[in-house]
Write a structure and sequence with these properties.
Layout (H helix, E strand, L loop, with lengths): L14 H15 L19 E3 L6 H8 L6 H4 L17 E7 L2 E7 L31 H6 L1 E3 L1 H6 L2 E5 L11 E5 L11 E12 L6 E14 L10 E9 L8 E3 L13 E2 L5 E7 L11 E4 L11 E6 L3 E4 L6 E4 L3 E10 L4 E8 L8 E3 L3
Parallel strand pairs: 11-14
Antiparallel strand pairs: 1-2, 2-3, 4-8, 5-6, 6-9, 7-8, 7-10, 8-9, 12-13, 12-19, 13-18, 14-17, 14-19, 15-16, 17-18
Helix pairs in contact: 1-2
Length: 367
């Protein structure tokens, strides 16, 4: 193996998708990831020495040495005799060595040369220059159109009574009357999403209710001066509609801006396991950069930024000698980044995959 200065072509990331891994790599360098008892998988094409260049990210570098880049904190050994030992700069030489039978990455640095910082940590920047952990346009339409709602929240939300002009069909530009019961109106919020209850999401194994789909069919705005009467009735203007608005449709505070893209990805906690419930795509199979709904949520310990492994369906095989029916675990087919978490459900983006993903596929913490 030779001194290596350029990322392997198969692992190079260009354009907006490279941004996705920048925050992850920089965060891994900080050593915040809890240590996990697992074997280190070395890249068989790893270099003996890697010379860091401008434009590199730690994810690129980790991928040169490791098959699973998130294991970087387990092999990184900062040199306390070097200024800023936890940071990596262009021109630094990284070497793979064995210490006590374990692989370690050590740093050689020419302390006499000028130092140019390799963006080793996140920093505040003007809004138009801020680097997100992933490009928002990968998920924005999923955030708007794919909601999970609590039935109790839905029942307590204000609802449409009908057209203020007695129109039979309610659509964009119409004025409607709406009533609030339960939690009442939130006076600080003028613009509301029009939501209709969709399908029921159940655990595929236990049949337990995990949540309901919320269909966002339009937007409405409370009219100025419409403060409501003793019965909680107010006038609203329909700003836009994707289909006919019906009496009984709920009015809920928009939730699409509640998702941050500034979290730092990390492997999900050990033992976490669920299923793909729905593909958030019009196709029957999902691929790289498609979104999924999974049967894991906050109550299971899932967090925004968690990385999960997607596994294909298990395979059944009959032993020809004993007649026993055996089950072979499905092979890993992709890596999923969780970007939104509900109580019992979560949304994730397929970062990379080796095969199409179907509903029912298993998701687990990376091994």
């Amino acid at each position: 193996m030779n001194e290596h200065a350029k990322p392997h072509p198969a692992r190079s990331l260009t354009g907006r998708y490279r941004i996705l891994f920048l925050g992850l790599g920089l965060w891994l360098a900080s050593g915040l990831l809890p240590a996990q008892a697992q074997n280190i998988s070395l890249n068989p094409d790893r270099p003996d020495v890697y010379v860091v260049e401008r434009g590199d990210t730690l994810w690129d570098i980790a991928g040169e040495f490791l098959e699973q880049p998130w294991q970087w904190p387990e092999v990184w050994r900062a040199n306390p005799d070097i200024e800023n030992p936890d940071l990596i700069y262009p021109g630094d030489r990284l070497r793979l060595v064995m210490q006590d039978g374990q692989p370690r990455i050590v740093l050689d640095r020419d302390t006499d040369r000028p130092v140019v910082r390799l963006s080793p940590q996140m920093r505040s920047q003007p809004r138009d220059e801020a680097i997100p952990v992933m490009s928002r346009d990968l998920i924005d339409h999923f955030l708007v159109d794919n909601l999970v709602i609590d039935p109790q929240d839905y029942e307590r939300a204000p609802y449409i009574l009908g057209s203020a002009a007695d129109n039979l069909v309610i659509s964009s530009g119409d004025t409607v009357l709406a009533r609030a019961s339960g939690d009442g109106w939130q006076d600080t919020v003028r613009q509301l999403d029009i939501i209709r209850m969709g399908e029921r999401y159940e655990d595929p194994e236990s049949g337990e209710l995990l949540g309901h789909q919320g269909l966002r069919i339009g937007q409405a705005r409370r009219q100025q001066g419409s403060s409501g009467d003793s019965e909680g009735v107010r006038r609203l203007e329909i700003l836009r509609s994707r289909e006919e608005i019906k009496p009984g449709d709920r009015l809920m505070v928009p939730a699409r801006n509640a998702v941050s893209t500034q979290y730092m990805p990390r492997p999900a906690r050990s033992g976490l396991q669920g299923r793909v419930l729905e593909l958030l795509t019009e196709l029957s199979l999902a691929a790289q950069y498609d979104s999924l709904l999974i049967s894991l949520g906050d109550e299971d310990g899932l967090r925004e930024g968690d990385l999960l492994t997607v596994h294909a369906d298990d395979q059944s095989v009959t032993d020809p000698l004993t007649g026993d029916v055996l089950v072979a675990a499905g092979e890993p087919v992709g890596t999923l980044l969780v970007y939104r978490v509900f109580d019992r459900l979560g949304h994730g983006l397929i970062l990379e995959g080796t095969a199409p993903v179907s509903e029912g596929f298993r998701v687990t913490a990376p091994q």
